[in-house]
Recover the amino acids of this structure.
């Protein structure tokens, strides 16, 4: 089986990757690059724990072939904090006690990030709809929604 | 799962690869169905032909007749400004497909070719009398979507053909569409039943000139409720006629009982959702007129 030579920009850094065509973006992130912040669970795009941003749009890394990402930019949870400072969403999730077991949180935060980029002033219902593709089996949705809303409010206040 | 991966850069090259591999090959659009079926071992293509480098398949053209390229994502459909008016059912169908992550990647062409009886955009396209274009080594052919869908996971597409897009005529004046889906929860749910409708009313807004009703997840393929449609045409749209149309729609269904719902419950949903969808169409035609 021939390997593919791929160039992916991951968290702002260019990576040259040699991999088999069947491997998913999730395989490459976790196994090849050690970026285990992106979680693995259902592998069928049902749960959202593997959510990353591909050219800014939320996608399920578990059902996306790495080959489909050739030449594109991937943002994972590891790339969200800048210079050691937590991203406002990360800070808000901690401050609001939105993290329980934590497994869904990287995906939650990235879905929220993609959504807030395009919808700066959401309602709570909007936030819940935006996060519908991310399941939290601790069922901590209320605090998650509050954390996302707090970030949106804070940003509007600064504008 | 192991296969050779191909990235043609033109339609001609893609079709040539499709013809070369036949049943051993699969076209990859968004992959939100294909990759899952390959993970499950349900499909084991030896060649995957990605369509990403093929340009011209991801555009929507709505000047006059509407053409939606096969690689248009559900997200693009949701956001297309011209679909906010009488064609709103397209948005309503697209926005309940999976989560944002799936809608950002999954395509209209893939949704059609996958031929799930529970597909959400397909019934809407059926109410628009849509046709699909397939390109093969022998050239292009156009089929009515209704004829293209044969059964669960089965279409009239030949293995060496690529579905390039779907097309339908713009709506007549006094027309509107609506789509409703029933699931056990409001998001991330495969339809238990979904219903799409289109109505064209006369100038008074009371009488039906043309009706289309399509039903999802009640038969091996997405169905048109032809008898219900014929019954409605040239009738005044009262609560009573909508109810009678719903009964005819129920008679067209062949639902199964499965983990999501019993056949009986699915029939009850059709009986409830058909009048609701039609009433919504009537309401929308009147809103547009005022």
């Amino acid at each position: 089986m021939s390997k593919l030579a791929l160039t992916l920009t991951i968290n702002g850094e260019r990576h040259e990757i040699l991999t088999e065509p069947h491997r998913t973006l999730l395989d490459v992130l976790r196994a090849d690059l050690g970026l285990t912040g992106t979680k693995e669970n259902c592998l069928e795009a049902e749960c959202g724990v593997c959510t990353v941003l591909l050219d800014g749009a939320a996608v399920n890394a578990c059902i996306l072939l790495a080959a489909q990402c050739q030449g594109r930019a991937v943002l994972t949870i590891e790339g969200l904090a800048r210079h050691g400072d937590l991203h406002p969403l990360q800070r808000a999730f901690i401050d609001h006690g939105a993290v329980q077991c934590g497994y869904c949180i990287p995906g939650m935060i990235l879905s929220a990030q993609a959504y807030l980029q395009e919808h700066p002033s959401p309602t709570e219902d909007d936030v819940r709809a935006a996060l519908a593709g991310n399941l939290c089996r601790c069922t901590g949705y209320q605090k998650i929604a509050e954390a996302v809303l707090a970030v949106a409010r804070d940003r509007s206040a600064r504008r | 799962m192991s296969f050779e991966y191909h990235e043609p850069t033109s339609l001609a090259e893609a079709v040539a690869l499709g013809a070369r591999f036949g049943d051993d090959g699969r076209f990859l659009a968004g992959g939100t169905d294909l990759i899952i079926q390959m993970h499950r071992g349900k499909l084991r293509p030896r060649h995957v032909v990605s369509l990403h480098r093929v340009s011209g398949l991801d555009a929507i053209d709505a000047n006059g007749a509407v053409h939606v390229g096969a690689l248009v994502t559900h997200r693009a459909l949701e956001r297309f400004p011209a679909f906010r008016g009488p064609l709103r059912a397209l948005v309503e169908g697209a926005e309940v497909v999976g989560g944002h992550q799936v809608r950002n990647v999954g395509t209209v062409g893939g949704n059609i070719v996958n031929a799930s009886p529970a597909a959400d955009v397909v019934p809407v396209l059926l109410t628009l009398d849509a046709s699909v274009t397939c390109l093969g080594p022998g050239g292009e052919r156009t089929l009515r979507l209704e004829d293209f869908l044969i059964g669960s996971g089965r279409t009239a597409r030949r293995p060496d053909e690529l579905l390039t897009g779907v097309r339908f005529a713009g709506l007549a004046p006094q027309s509107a569409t609506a789509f409703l889906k029933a699931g056990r929860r409001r998001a991330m749910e495969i339809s238990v039943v979904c219903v799409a409708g289109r109505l064209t009313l006369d100038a008074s807004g009371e009488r039906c000139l043309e009706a289309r009703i399509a039903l999802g997840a009640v038969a091996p393929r997405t169905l048109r409720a032809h008898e219900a449609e014929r019954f409605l045409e040239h009738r005044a749209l009262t609560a009573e006629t909508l109810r009678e149309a719903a009964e005819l729609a129920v008679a067209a269904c062949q639902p199964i009982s499965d983990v999501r719902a019993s056949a009986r419950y699915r029939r009850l949903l059709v009986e409830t959702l058909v009048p609701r969808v039609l009433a919504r169409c009537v309401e929308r035609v009147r809103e547009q007129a005022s």
